[in-house]
Amino acid sequence: MVDSIAATSLLGHRPSFSSYNWKYAATKHNCRLSFTKLMDRKDGFWHVKHPIRSMIKAQAAELTREAHSYREEDRIPRGFRPGIDSGVDSRPGLWPPENKADNPALKNPLLRQERMGCGWLGAIFEWEGVLVEDNPDLEKQAWLTLAQEEGKSPPPAFMLRRIEGMKNEQAIAEVLCWSRDPGVLKRMGSRKEEIHQALQGGIYRFRSGSQTFLNVLVHHKVPVALVSTRPRKSLERAIAVIGIEGVFSVIVTAEDVYRGKPDPEMFMYAAQLLQFIPERCIVFGNSNQTVEAAHDARMKCVAVASKHPVYELGAADLVVRHLDELSVVDLKNLADIEAVELEPELEMEVEAEDDRPPSTSVGVHDDFW
Fold this sequence. Notes:
The protein has 369 residues and is an alpha/beta fold. The chain has helices at residues 2-7, 19-27, 35-38, 50-67, 109-116, 136-150, 157-162, 168-176, 182-200, 210-219, 232-242, 265-274, 288-296, 328-334, 343-354; strands at 39-42, 45-48, 122-126, 224-227, 250-252, 281-285, 300-304, 318-320. The protein is built from 15 helices and 8 strands. The chain is globular and about 85 Å long. The two termini are 46 Å apart. It comes from Salvia divinorum (Maria pastora). Residues 76-101, 349-369 are annotated as: Disordered.
């Protein structure tokens, strides 16, 4: 019992009653505790004295408390059964997620089954360069005009590329470093949008194939969300001009989030408003910042090659030049989170083992040297 406590101590203290110390105490005279002080001979047998026995019991009790020192909230209830292993932590409160695909409030079991199937998905669109035509030169010209009005140095080209997709206040404070004052940031951001709207002229038109694809999604009753870092008034005015009011179930604008791309906050918030888990949502964008934000949010991304060539958008799950190249079947395949992709990996491992070259090692007798 003494040796087992010393060997399995979790407290990090130096063992006090190991077998080495017993031998050392029995053979050396300059030891702090002698063998006769630790032991007592009764009835022809050696017994541990009462104070030492109390110390051993205290150590055993301390070990017991340390082994069960995890928090109460980490314990799994006695009646909890996690069910099928889904690759996530099955402790209560973590799975199923709060924003799960199944909705018990739906009384119709067929609707619940449709919602849980791979065909049930949500589409999250960006506005400029995806649904409507975009002129990147107007964005650059708006920033250069704002810098001239504020007496700031014109931002270089690499900095303008870095602030693509960011909120105006975020770009001014974190990249351009023009100010940190909230009031100044709000004023500069509003002024930049006014300049951009003046350059835009209030003229919007669909990209080729975008209106057709939206009609297909509406026909199949796929919920559609719109995400943009533009102010809500500007975006609603543009939607009214293009004539697609009522198409979007959710609209997320600059006022609704704290940060823009490549932070996934906008897409996560849109998924919550759509009441979908992120794996059921597909993001449609036209930049690598969008692809990065969508993947960080655990969403699939379809990249539209409008201002970037196709080869620069290879990180996306699908790359198209126009949205009408897609079908609902393509979207279902992207949203099919039940698909198992382990078999090809296993086949590759088997092939790798079969293709290994024969071993060239030569056995050598131990007594050779």
